[in-house]
Each structure stands twice: as structure tokens, then as C-alpha cells.
Design brief:
Helix content: under 10%
Strand order of the largest sheet: 4-5-6-7
CATH class: Mainly Beta
InterPro entries: U3_snoRNA-assoc_WDR, WD40/YVTN_repeat-like_dom_sf, WD40_repeat_dom_sf, WD40_rpt
Oligomer: single chain
GO cellular component, one term: nucleolus
CATH topology: Thrombin, subunit H
Strand content: 35-45%
Number of helices: 0
Structural class: mainly beta
Subcellular location: Nucleus
CATH architecture: Beta Barrel
Mean pLDDT: 81
Order of helices and strands: EEEEEEE
Distance between the termini: 65 Å
Number of domains: 1
Main location: nucleus
Radius of gyration: 19 Å
Largest sheet: 4 strands, antiparallel
Number of strands: 7
Keywords: Nucleus, WD repeat
Low-confidence stretches: 10-18
């Protein structure tokens, strides 16, 4: 008895992964954001100057190198992670 139709196995394909996928963004209590490389296991960069209070939330933009953060200082900041500056 057959187990059903046989499927062809595909070869593994190379996938281009966005560089941001290996970066973890962590907001701090003093208003800075730390960017850690999950591949290297080390601090990649530190974003300062956008907030003066605790970071509540960070979110990556899905289409570019921007990161958004909001803080208890009641501001939303758009960061350019290439330059580590506020946009």
C-alpha cells in the first residue's frame, strides 16, 4: 500500500535576511536604546538624545532601517539605526 503521492524534495535555497533581524533593541530606564547583535552576542551601538525618561516601547519599521521608540517623556522618536541619530 502506498503512502500517498511522492513529493519532490527541494534543495535549500539561499535566503537574503535583513540585517535588522539579528539586532535586538532594548530601551533603558534613562532614555537610551541599546542595540545588541544576537549573532555576535555584543553591543552594536547605543542610541542617545531622543528621550529624557524611561523607554516604554521600541518597534522596528518593516521596510527600512528605522526604529521607533516611545517614552514616559510622552514623545515618539524615529531613529536612523545606520547613523544612530534621531531622524
Amino acid at each position: 500500500m502506498e503512502d500517498g503521492p511522492q513529493r519532490k524534495k527541494r534543495k535549500s535555497e539561499a535566503v537574503e535576511v535583513d540585517k535588522q533581524l539579528d539586532i535586538l533593541a532594548i530601551g533603558t530606564a534613562v532614555g537610551s536604546i541599546l542595540l545588541y547583535s544576537t549573532v555576535k552576542g555584543e553591543l552594536q551601538s547605543k542610541l542617545d538624545g531622543g528621550h529624557d525618561n524611561r523607554i516604554n516601547c521600541v518597534r522596528w519599521h518593516q521596510d527600512n532601517c528605522c526604529l521607533y521608540s516611545c517614552s514616559e517623556d510622552k514623545h515618539i522618536v524615529e531613529w536612523n539605526t545606520q547613523t544612530c541619530k534621531v531622524k
